[in-house]
């Protein structure tokens, strides 16, 4: 989970369970071959890994979408319009996003709306949400009795809140760490041409830390353009 801190997560495609069990149920079809790698980006501690991979050798439908995930980081944010994903063209399915948000200042940070610019949108997006917590299916600052309240559902949640304790958490440079999920497993956002997805941070949120992980399904042989080299081929 975010910030290298364990937090349980229960959703349809992903489970995080005690003590450090990460379970993924995303469908990831392949036609010729597949390759799975694990990378330890912690240069201080060795990685102890055990795993189980389940797969089926079967016919893959011609319109089955390849699975793609893209991780980004902004530390700190420099603009109020933060791009979650951009420059994707083709036919596909936006299936969700995980977002870790580090709040470096006092006050509420989640007034920014999420926007989906699709198929030639210019000034106004096809989808324009309200506040950040609304997109992740919460409301009113995720607040109950003056405190953030964690929750998990099959499609959305606020699974992690790292509260300041007056010592290490404040000293590490942020006041509170938030992790949020939103999955759209039914084919709601089918792209006909182009998509840009972004979230707006209000002025109080500048210089925060944002770490989104985007999940996307793309139909094979129907791609016009995909950014960089994160388009699977097999």
TrEMBL record:
It holds the Pfam family DUF2961. InterPro entries: DUF2961. This is DUF2961 domain-containing protein. It comes from termite gut metagenome.
């Amino acid at each position: 989970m975010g910030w290298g801190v364990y937090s349980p997560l229960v959703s349809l495609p992903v489970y995080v369970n005690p003590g450090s069990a990460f379970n993924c149920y995303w469908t990831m079809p392949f036609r010729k071959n597949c390759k799975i790698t694990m990378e330890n980006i912690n240069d201080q501690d060795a990685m102890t890994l055990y795993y189980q991979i389940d797969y089926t050798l079967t016919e893959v439908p011609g319109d089955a979408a390849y699975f793609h995930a893209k991780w980004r980081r902004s530390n700190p944010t420099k603009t109020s319009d933060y791009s979650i994903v951009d420059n994707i063209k083709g036919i596909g399915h936006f299936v969700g996003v995980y977002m870790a948000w580090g709040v470096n200042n006092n006050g509420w940070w989640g007034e920014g709306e999420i926007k989906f610019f699709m198929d030639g949108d210019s000034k106004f997006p096809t989808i324009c949400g309200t506040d950040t917590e609304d997109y992740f299916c919460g409301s009113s600052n995720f607040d109950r009795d003056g405190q953030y309240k964690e929750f998990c559902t099959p499609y959305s949640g606020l699974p992690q809140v790292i509260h300041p304790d007056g010592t290490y958490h404040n000293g590490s440079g942020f006041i509170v760490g938030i992790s949020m999920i939103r999955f759209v497993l039914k084919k709601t956002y089918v792209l006909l041409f182009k998509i840009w997805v972004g979230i707006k941070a209000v002025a109080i949120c500048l210089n925060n830390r944002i770490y989104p992980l985007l999940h996307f399904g793309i139909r094979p042989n129907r791609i016009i353009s995909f950014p960089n080299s994160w388009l699977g081929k097999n």
